[in-house]
């Protein structure tokens, strides 16, 4: 009987001619197999058996060179030779498929896949049940990364009566077959980027099957290792579904069930623990908090420019002996006696004896932070490449290698690692606000006195014998902590809470404290360098997100003192992560008094006090770095009382500029061959820490200003662009720190500031050094952009004192770089020009202002939104400069400034006001300033009339449009600027009523109270009654303000309530201002309103007089005398209006104002009377 032919099978192809690097054994065997023809004789079957055995036993790990297409051709030929009624041959060909595809890492192409899948499915349907195990293994290898190509077979595999659904069912008598079926399903779910995904409803079907497998207890006929492999396959399947992005966990029950089985699997086989969990975890209701995302701090450098400390490992095909040997060696290096956790017992948790350390086996799980430091890499999520295909019939172990117990522990550890990998994918696929509902299920809390501690991720970190599992648990905890700043911000324990219940804020604070305690315990107990790196990274994440300004002191002190010794650890990854943690401490909620005290500790404090790191020696860098040539110059800028040098700054400087010490050189594989310095990631992290210190603790950094200047020059003169870039970032931070000291609202005493003469010396050093060269380095545009940012941080007071050639150099380079083709450089240049145009020594230079204006207008036409946004910001600054110059006594600037350029600026600003919100917000600011700046000589020209009308229409549109609130706020502010120009025909022009209608609409109905405040401010700016137009227009504005006062507390957003008082203040000022300008024709309408709402208006004006001005207008009255003078002037004005005989309107309004002043003076105890007013 001939072999069965499967319909649609591809034609037989002869084996290819061997390539030079192809395995000769495979080539010969393949040629022999392809020469055979279907034959049912006993001799033919024997020959096929022998060929299959030889192909399986061939050593493919040596030589290589077997082409994937040749493998597929051979497998098709093998299946064609084997009829489905020959169970033994079907079993053997299934083993061959599984073996070759696994060992040679081949993914079957679509044409051959169609034939092989049809064969395998037919084999399961027709062959004896004892062959199902091998056939399912072959099927798993075939569908690996081919799920999207199996669509037509999915109903037969995953449908209601599908093969895999039946074989994976709990009723399946053979546990090995059940596990293999789940494995097939997991491989079907594995998605390949760029390929189509499984169509619905199959992802949901698979998810339910995996969840059932995880929820079901081990049956009596299933051995422990098979059960572990079943759990691994189910976990990998769920992880593949989540990573593919198609599986959305939107149902609480669904997510709760998954998290419950993940928590259970996380502790599977952990020695000494036996936990029982509900089948579904339910979230804890969280209190309402601001749903808006927090404002992200400006990144200190582009993410692409900051190298990580990890190096991606390329997957290699290894023989099992080699792989096992390496893994056992890696595991044994990280074994330890497990630190006991106090009082573990909640959730039916039972303590056992102290577990024995176990050795690792099976597939490797790459861990972030592992490997040596070298080239940049993207940190990998924990993902097991070894889960690709698991063989149940082959063992990686023998009794001689550790026995069944060691093998069992290894499989259990892989289940825990798989659960953690799946949990990490779950975290990435759900919203953080959903995740934090389950915070208490996975993050420890301080146990109450006498109560046991609940099991959590920290239980694994402290108790798991496998360093890989500990590292995985830490990665998951880091993922939970990442971005948790808003959630953790509610924590507070600064005062003792003695209540009948525990507030949510106290509970979160308790959890933060427990995390600190447990992570520091783990730090001391850990012996594996890779896991140690993860602990420190996790601590850095915790520090970055914890609200220490709301917590009791000492948390950061404990972290600080315990991390110090690890700065000199033998492993470079540990040293880098230690610096990262120190950087997190000095950047969180800076400046913190606790951290300031830590920075002032003696240089050697705590650096050799930790017994856990016996290799530490005396910190010689303290002595080396402290003898620098710039101490004398630096001491000039030292603030009083800062005699103790900052050890962290000294450490970072020495790390960047001094040769590395011998004690740390053993594991610095990341440093270049023959390099005398620390590895690049170590130096980059040190520069990062210096930048954080300059930003948050400038009073400490300023002592070392000139020395840091030398460090910057050295870094920017090196060949490594990353070092150059971080040097430029440090320069920018130092420059910004100096600017902050000299701001008008600075709290730094004048004798504590860095003297301007020293700042001039500092910038002269920079401009004589490599900074100009970096600005001209077109090969590295990111560095150019950072150098532009650094150049924009020059202190204005120092710039004017720089040598004239240096001033010209700065200006010339910036104007030249504005023509750059690179968008990063162009954006940075546009911003820098916007800073320079505000410098007092440059803003009256008509030529410079005009050149800057032309450069900015050119950037406003750029295709890049970022460039246009920066250019619009700079245009706003330039127009601010025009207003400042207009207010100076010397009119020469206005006279010399080109009217044609003004027209160009107005047109560009109008065009920009129609752009995206990022551009629009500053474009409307510029329009307001330009219309304010226009002189009568400009307005009289016909060519300006149309552009003025168009500009005001653009502002009206921006006030009313449903855009970002910043746009509307700036538009109202700009409208107020327009009203300040007395040369404009306000009150008579047709656009007057449109402008007022827009502002009155906003003041009464805008959801954002800051926009309402700004519109009320704009309405109070016109200085003459005729500017308000007709009586109807005036009355409309008056009524709108009264209505706005009534609605000043009407809001559904509780975040707006803090602006209520400011809004009422501004409206009251506007009403009083309108009264002080009212005409006789306006009074009847005012009286009518007061008759209806007089009590309400009176009460709010009295609040205004008593509480003071809380508006945002810098010209608003702040003293009580100024406030009551406003009402007095309004009273005097109304009293001076000539009224007709018998008209009582004026008298009623006078009485209203007098009552307000009388009540106010009576309540304040003032003896001032109003005889001159009451006698009228």
UniProtKB/TrEMBL annotation:
Chain intervals for the UniProt region annotation (Disordered): 1-23, 288-402
UniProt key word Phosphoprotein: yes
Polar residues composition-biased segments: 297-308
Protein name, per record: HEAT repeat-containing protein 6
Gene name as annotated: HEATR6
InterPro entries: ARM-like (IPR011989), ARM-type_fold (IPR016024), DUF4042 (IPR025283), HEAT6 (IPR052107)
Organism: Zalophus californianus (California sealion)
Entry keyword Repeat: yes
PANTHER family assigned to the protein according to its UniProt record, in alphabetical order: HEAT REPEAT-CONTAINING PROTEIN 6, MALARIA ANTIGEN-RELATED
Record field: compositional bias (Basic residues): 309-321
Gene3D superfamilies: Leucine-rich Repeat Variant
Residue span(s) of domain DUF4042: 414-595
Keyword terms, alphabetized: Phosphoprotein, Repeat
Taxonomy of the source species: Eukaryota, Metazoa, Chordata, Craniata, Vertebrata
């Amino acid at each position: 009987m001939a072999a069965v032919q499967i319909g649609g099978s591809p034609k037989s192809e002869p084996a290819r001619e061997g390539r030079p690097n192809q395995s000769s054994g495979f080539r010969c065997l393949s040629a022999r197999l392809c020469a055979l023809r279907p034959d049912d004789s006993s001799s033919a079957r024997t020959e096929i058996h022998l060929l299959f055995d030889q192909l399986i036993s061939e050593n493919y790990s040596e030589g290589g060179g077997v082409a994937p297409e040749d493998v597929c051709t051979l497998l098709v030929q093998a299946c064609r030779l084997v009829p489905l009624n020959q169970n033994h041959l079907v079993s053997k060909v299934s083993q061959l498929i599984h073996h070759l595809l696994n060992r040679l890492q081949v993914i079957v192409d679509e044409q051959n896949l169609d034939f092989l899948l049809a064969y395998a499915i037919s084999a399961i349907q027709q062959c004896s049940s004892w062959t199902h195990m091998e056939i399912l293994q072959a099927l798993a290898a075939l569908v690996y990364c081919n799920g999207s190509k199996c669509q037509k077979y999915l109903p037969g595999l995953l449908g209601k009566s599908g093969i895999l659904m039946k074989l994976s069912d709990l009723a399946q008598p053979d546990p090995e077959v059940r596990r293999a079926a789940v494995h097939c399903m997991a491989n079907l779910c594995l998605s390949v980027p760029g390929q189509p995904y499984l169509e619905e409803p199959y992802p949901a079907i698979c998810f339910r099957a995996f969840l059932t497998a995880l929820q079901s207890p081990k049956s009596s006929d299933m051995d422990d290792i098979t059960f572990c492999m079943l759990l691994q396959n189910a976990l990998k399947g769920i992880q593949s579904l989540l990573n593919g992005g198609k599986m959305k966990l939107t149902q609480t029950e669904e997510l709760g069930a998954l998290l419950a089985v993940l928590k259970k699997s996380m502790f599977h086989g952990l020695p000494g623990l036996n936990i029982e969990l509900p089948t579904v975890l339910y979230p804890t209701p969280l209190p309402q908090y601001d749903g808006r995302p927090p404002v992200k701090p400006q990144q200190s450098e582009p993410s692409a420019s900051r190298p990580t400390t990890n190096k991606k490992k390329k997957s290699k095909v290894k023989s099992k002996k080699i792989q096992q040997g390496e893994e056992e060696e890696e595991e044994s290096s990280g074994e330890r006696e497990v630190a006991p956790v106090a009082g573990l017992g909640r959730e039916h948790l039972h303590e056992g004896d102290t577990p024995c350390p176990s050795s690792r086996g099976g597939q490797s799980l790459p861990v972030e932070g592992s490997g040596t430091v070298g080239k940049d890499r993207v940190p990998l999520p924990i993902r097991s490449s070894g889960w690709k295909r698991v063989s149940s019939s082959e063992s990686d172990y023998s009794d001689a290698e550790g026995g069944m117990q060691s093998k069992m522990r290894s499989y259990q550890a892989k289940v825990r690692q798989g659960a953690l990998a799946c949990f990490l994918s779950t975290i990435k696929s759900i919203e953080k606000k959903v995740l934090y509902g389950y915070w208490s299920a996975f993050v420890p809390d301080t146990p109450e006195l006498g109560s046991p501690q609940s099991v959590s991720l920290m239980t694994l970190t402290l108790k798991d014998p496998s360093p890989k599992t500990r590292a995985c648990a830490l990665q998951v905890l880091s993922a939970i902590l990442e971005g948790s700043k808003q959630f953790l911000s509610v924590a507070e324990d600064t005062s003792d809470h003695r209540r009948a219940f525990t507030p949510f804020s106290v509970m979160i604070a308790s959890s933060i404290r427990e995390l600190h305690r447990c992570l520091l315990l783990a730090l001391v107990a850990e012996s594996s360098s890779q896991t140690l790196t993860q602990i420190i990274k996790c601590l850095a994440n915790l520090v970055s997100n914890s609200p220490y300004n709301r917590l009791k002191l000492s948390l950061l002190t404990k972290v600080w003192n315990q991390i110090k010794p690890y700065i000199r650890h033998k492993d470079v990854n540990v040293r880098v992560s230690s610096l990262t943690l120190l950087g997190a401490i000095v950047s969180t909620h800076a400046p913190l008094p606790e951290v300031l005290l830590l920075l002032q500790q003696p240089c050697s404090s705590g650096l050799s006090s930790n017994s856990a790191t016996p290799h530490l020696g005396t910190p010689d860098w303290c002595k080396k770095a402290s003898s620098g040539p710039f101490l004398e110059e630096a001491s000039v800028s030292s603030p009083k009382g800062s005699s103790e040098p900052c050890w962290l700054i000294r450490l970072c400087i020495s790390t960047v500029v001094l040769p590395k010490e011998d004690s740390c050189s053993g594991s610095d594989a990341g440093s270049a061959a023959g390099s005398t310095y620390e590895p690049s990631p170590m130096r980059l992290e040190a520069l990062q820490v210096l930048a954080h210190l300059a930003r948050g603790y400038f009073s400490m950094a300023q002592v070392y200003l000139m020395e840091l200047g030398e460090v910057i020059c050295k870094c920017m003169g090196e060949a490594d662009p990353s070092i150059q870039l971080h040097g430029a970032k440090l320069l920018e931070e130092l420059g910004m720190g100096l600017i902050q000291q000299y701001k008008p609202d600075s709290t730094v005493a004048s004798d504590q500031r860095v003297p301007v003469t020293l700042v001039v010396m500092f910038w002269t050093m920079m401009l004589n050094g490599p900074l100009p060269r970096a600005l001209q380095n077109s090969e590295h545009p990111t560095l150019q952009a950072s150098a532009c940012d650094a150049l924009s941080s020059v202190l204005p007071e120092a710039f004017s004192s720089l040598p004239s050639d240096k001033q010209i150099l700065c200006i010339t380079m910036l104007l030249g770089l504005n023509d750059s083709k690179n968008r990063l450089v162009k954006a940075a240049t546009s911003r820098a020009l916007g800073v320079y145009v505000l410098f007092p020594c440059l803003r009256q230079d008509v030529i410079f202002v005009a050149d800057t204006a032309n450069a900015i207008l050119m950037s406003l036409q750029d295709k890049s939104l970022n460039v246009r946004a920066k250019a619009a910001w700079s245009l706003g600054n330039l127009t601010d400069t025009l207003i400042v110059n207009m207010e100076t006594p010397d009119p020469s600037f206005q006279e010399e400034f080109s009217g044609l350029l003004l027209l160009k600026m107005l047109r560009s600003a109008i065009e920009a006001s129609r752009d995206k919100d990022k551009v629009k917000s500053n474009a409307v600011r510029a329009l307001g300033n330009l219309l304010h700046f226009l002189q009568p000589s400009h307005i009289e020209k016909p060519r300006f009339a149309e552009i003025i009308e168009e500009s005001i229409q653009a502002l009206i549109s921006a006030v009313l449009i449903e855009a970002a609130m910043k746009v509307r706020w700036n538009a109202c502010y700009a409208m107020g600027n327009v009203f300040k120009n007395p040369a404009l025909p306000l009150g008579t022009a047709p656009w007057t009523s449109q402008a007022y209608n827009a502002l009155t609409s906003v003041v009464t109905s805008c959801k954002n109270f800051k926009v309402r405040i700004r519109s009320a401010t704009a309405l109070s700016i016109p200085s003459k009654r005729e500017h308000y137009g007709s009586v109807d227009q005036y009355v409309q504005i008056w009524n709108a303000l009264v209505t706005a006062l009534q609605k000043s507390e009407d809001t559904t957003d509780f975040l707006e309530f803090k602006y209520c008082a400011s809004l009422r203040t501004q409206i009251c000022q506007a009403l009083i201002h309108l009264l002080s300008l009212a005409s006789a024709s306006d009074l009847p309408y005012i009286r009518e309103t007061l008759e209806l709402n007089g009590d309400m208006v009176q009460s709010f004006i009295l609040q205004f007089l008593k509480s003071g001005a809380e508006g945002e207008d810098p010209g608003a009255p702040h003293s009580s005398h100024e406030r009551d003078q406003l009402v007095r002037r309004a009273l005097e004005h109304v009293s001076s209006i000539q009224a007709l005989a018998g008209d009582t309107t004026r008298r009623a309004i006078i009485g209203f104002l007098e009552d307000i002043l009388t009540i106010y003076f009576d309540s304040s105890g003032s003896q001032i009377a109003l005889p001159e007013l009451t006698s009228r």
